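Progress note, sequence design subtask.
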């Protein structure tokens, strides 16, 4: 078996990720075989996007970015039949934690825990960004430019983005708390407001119409497609198709 044929594929209809085997290149369309599907609910990990390494024992070794006992990732081995053995479930004290590279040359430790998501935003409009962390099991925390920590919410986020939804100089946060809670906005460093009850597959903020206010662009997945919340006022569909990924910028 050629280990170079092993790759990971995202399954569009779920959050699961599968390991698959490609058939050898040929003039006809290639086929693939699912060897193992990683899901966050089965304890074997989730989001195994790194490449597999084949050991001297013939097994394939890899890591996941999430899932496992503590929901912060796993180390696993897998045989050619797709049978997975978890070798280690990461804990938040593993590794080096969060560090800051200041002024391009000085590394400073900030926290020993491992966040799943980090965004920066000038929440208090003083010209310096705060850092917003999602620490699994501990919720959302803000590290201010004054060097202090404060809890923003006890819940963890599925997705999070920062921008300006209104004319206020203070940055806003758009946070998807997942199924059952939905998408919320943390406005002007003070107020929580409800945005949508459906969980997102992905989201970002961008000023699509040049008004100075960011639109919230949300991929609601294959069932609903791509939508925008424009000018802090109304929802409209951008595309019926759910993209594999998305980014915003100025290209023209």
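Output:
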């Amino acid at each position: 078996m050629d280990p170079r044929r092993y790759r990971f594929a995202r399954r569009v209809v779920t959050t699961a990720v599968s390991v698959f085997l490609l058939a050898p290149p040929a003039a006809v369309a290639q086929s693939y075989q699912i060897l193992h599907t990683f899901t966050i609910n089965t304890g074997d990990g989730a989001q195994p996007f790194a490449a597999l390494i084949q050991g001297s024992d013939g097994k394939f070794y890899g890591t996941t970015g999430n899932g496992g006992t503590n929901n912060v990732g796993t180390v696993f081995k897998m045989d050619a039949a797709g049978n997975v053995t978890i070798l280690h479930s990461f804990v938040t004290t593993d590794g080096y934690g969060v560090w800051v590279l200041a002024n391009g040359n000085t590394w400073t430790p900030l926290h020993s825990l491992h966040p799943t998501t980090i965004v920066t935003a000038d929440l208090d409009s003083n010209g310096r960004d705060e850092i917003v962390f999602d620490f699994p099991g501990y919720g959302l925390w803000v590290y201010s430019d004054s060097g202090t920590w404060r809890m923003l919410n006890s819940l963890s986020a599925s997705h999070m983005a920062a921008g300006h939804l209104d004319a206020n100089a203070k940055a806003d946060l758009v946070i998807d708390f997942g199924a059952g809670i939905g998408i919320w906005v943390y406005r002007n460093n003070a107020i929580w407001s409800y945005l949508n009850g459906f969980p997102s597959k992905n989201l970002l903020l961008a000023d699509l119409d040049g008004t100075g206010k960011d639109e919230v662009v949300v991929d609601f997945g294959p069932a609903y497609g791509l939508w925008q919340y424009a000018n802090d006022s109304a929802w409209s569909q951008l595309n019926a198709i759910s993209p594999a990924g998305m980014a915003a910028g100025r290209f023209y």
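Residues 98-239 form one domain. Work on this subtask will continue into the next period as scheduled.
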